[in-house]
Amino acid sequence: MPRTRPGRTSMKELEPNRRIAVYPGSFDPVTLGHMDIIRRAAKQFDKLIVAVLNNTSKNPLFTVEERKALLEAVTSDLPNVEIDSFRDLLVRYMKKRNANVIIRGIRSVSDFEYELQLASTNHRLDSSIETIFMMTNPKYSYLSSSIVKEIAMFHGDVSELVPPEVEAALRVKFAAPKADKPG
C-alpha cells in the first residue's frame, strides 16, 4: 500500500469504487485535448470509463457507435480505459458502473462556471458523486470538437488537433482529400 504522511489518505486507500472514474462527453469527435485529459486521468485511477453521451436532442456528425469505435482506436494503448455510452442521468449511469468520480476538463473560466453548476447539480442528486476538474494543457485551451468539425468541413488541416484515426474519419465524413499542411 502506498505510504502517505500521517493524517493523509491517498486516492488508492479510499473505498474501492473511488478508484473508478467516468469521463463523460459527446466526443464528436474526440480531439487531442480530450486525449490529454484521458491520458492524465487514466494515470490517477484503476479504471477510467470514457462514456459517450447519447444525446438525442443534438445532431451529431458521428453516431454513438462511430464515436465509441474512434475512442477505442485512440485509447487502445491504455489498458485501464474502457469505452462505453449512456443515455441516462450521469449520476444513475455512475451508480450502475460503481463509480463515484466524474472527470471534467477545464479550458477557461467560462468552462469552470458551467462545469461548477453541473458538478453542484450532480452532487445534489447524489452526494457520493465527486467531480475532479483537470485543467487542459494550455496548447489545447482553444480546442473544441465544434472548431475541429468546422475546419474539417472546409477541408482544412486538422492533423494537429485530432488523432490520425479521427482525421481519417473526418476526411471520409466530408469526402475530402488529405489536407495540405500550411507553410
Concise synopsis of the structure shown:
The protein has 183 residues and is of the alpha/beta class.
Mean pLDDT: 89
Percent of residues in beta strands: 15-25%
Overall morphology = globular
Query: Which CATH architecture of one domain is right?
Result: 3-Layer(aba) Sandwich
Radius of gyration: 17 Å
Please report the total strand number as a whole number: 5
The percent range for helix content is 25-40%
CATH fold type of one domain: Rossmann fold
In N-to-C order, the SSE pattern is EHEHEHEHEHH
How many DSSP helices? 6
> Stretches where pLDDT falls below 50 for ≥5 residues?
1-10, 13-18
What strand line-up does the widest sheet have? 3-2-1-4-5
CATH superfamily of one domain: HUPs
What is the straight-line distance between the termini? 52 Å
- CATH top level of one domain is Alpha Beta
Structural class: alpha/beta
| Largest pleated sheet | 5 strands, parallel
Descriptive overview:
There is one protein chain. It contains six helices and five strands; from the N terminus they run βαβαβαβαβαα. It is α/β, with parallel strands linked by helices and 183 residues long. A five-stranded parallel sheet has the order 3-2-1-4-5, with helices on both faces. It is 37% helix and 17% strand. It has helices spanning 32-44, 64-74, 90-96, 109-125, 145-153, 164-173, and strands at residues 20-25, 47-53, 81-86, 101-106, 130-135. Mean pLDDT is 89; it is low at 1-10 and 13-18. The longest helix is centred in the middle third of the chain and has 17 residues, at 109-125. Strand 4, helix 4 and strand 5 form a beta-alpha-beta unit. It has a domain at 16-141: Rossmann fold (3-Layer(aba) Sandwich), CATH 3.40.50.620. It is globular.
